[in-house]
Design goal:
single chain, BirA Bifunctional Protein, domain 2, SH3 type barrels, 5-stranded antiparallel sheet
Length: about 210
């Protein structure tokens, strides 16, 4: 899409989608066991593409891609089913490219144009993104999810950090130590317990 008037992110939040960004939804048909890890796989694909532009892109659990700690891309994966019962997933990707950002997001988000100091053609960017997404998705379908998760871990800005995970059940603080094969974040709490989170907002504390 050129722009979205009602773009949304996780938990029904609005996603600023002004003209000049890259907004795409891809239909995938993953094996059921891989569904929860799709957002991690998609973030790896985005990070690869940004790396080709010379940017040191990092992935923040569960669905953000950042450069220098500022968000440049958000990913939303939703499961659905056809009338016949076949399941599929919609992977929505919103990438800040040449679009303007609201003033209130200036410190927390960035665009590729700002980071590179020049406009970025979006069609070649989209084609490369689809190519990388096809690669990580093919690995997932072939049972090679471990390879994709290993790459996510190498690119992660979350693992090894002291974090606060905010959930409907409350906030939990500890060290992010790993992600599971289902894409859950494993956090070692102060008590020594390793708690698994499948959803939640993560704040990097240090």
């Amino acid at each position: 899409a050129e722009e979205q008037e009602a773009g949304r992110g996780r938990l029904g939040r609005s996603w600023h989608s002004a003209a000049g960004g890259l907004y795409a939804t891809v239909v995938l048909r993953p094996p059921p066991w891989a569904l929860r890890a799709l957002s991690l796989a998609a973030s790896v694909a985005v990070a690869r593409v940004l790396g080709l532009l010379g940017l040191d892109a990092r992935v923040k659990w569960p669905n953000d891609v950042q450069v220098a700690g500022r968000k440049v891309c958000g990913i939303l994966v939703e499961a659905a089913a056809e009338p016949g019962g076949a399941a599929y997933a919609l992977a929505g990707i919103g990438l800040n490219v040449n679009n303007a950002l609201p003033e209130e997001l200036a410190g927390a988000a960035a665009t590729l144009r700002e980071l590179l100091g020049r406009p970025v053609p979006r069609l070649p960017l989209l084609l490369k993104l689809l190519e990388e997404l096809d690669d990580v998705y093919s690995r997932v379908k072939e049972g090679r999810l471990g390879e994709v998760l290993a790459e996510w871990k190498r690119r992660s800005s979350t693992l090894g950090r002291v974090v606060r995970v905010e959930t409907p059940e409350g906030a939990f603080m500890g060290v992010a130590v790993d992600v599971s094969e289902e894409g859950a974040l494993l956090v070692k709490l102060g008590s020594g317990e390793v708690k698994e989170f499948h959803a939640g907002d993560v704040v990097h504390l240090r």
